[in-house]
Amino acid sequence: MKLFILCQTDVWKSKASRVCFGVFDTRNKAIDSAKWQQLFNCISEVVVLEVTLNAFEEI
Asked: 24 pairs with which residues across the strands?
């Protein structure tokens, strides 16, 4: 099963600047939530990471 993690980061998309905002079951729900929370702006980017449930891996 795939899950999608919604993160906000700086414009360089560095891992150190990621702030996670939620875990969703579809990419569309993650993007809709980012729009509703107004996470898109000129100094930050939104990243939706796709991960597999019950898998041990670096994200």
From this structure: 4
In this structure, what are the phi and psi dihedrals at residue 39, rounded to the nearest 5 degrees?
Answer: -80, -15
User: What one-letter code names the amino acid at 53?
Assistant: L
Mean pLDDT of the chain: 93
Which ranges of 1-44 does DSSP label H, i.e. alpha helix? 27-36
Q: Which domain holds residue 45?
A: 2-52
Instruction: Tell me the pLDDT band of 38, cut-offs 50, 70 and 90.
Output: very high
What is the token pair recorded at 42? 């000129």
The total of structural domains in the chain comes to: 1
Q: Under a CB-based contact definition with an 8 Å cutoff, are residues 4 and 48 in contact?
A: yes
Q: Would 58 be classed as within a structural domain? A: no
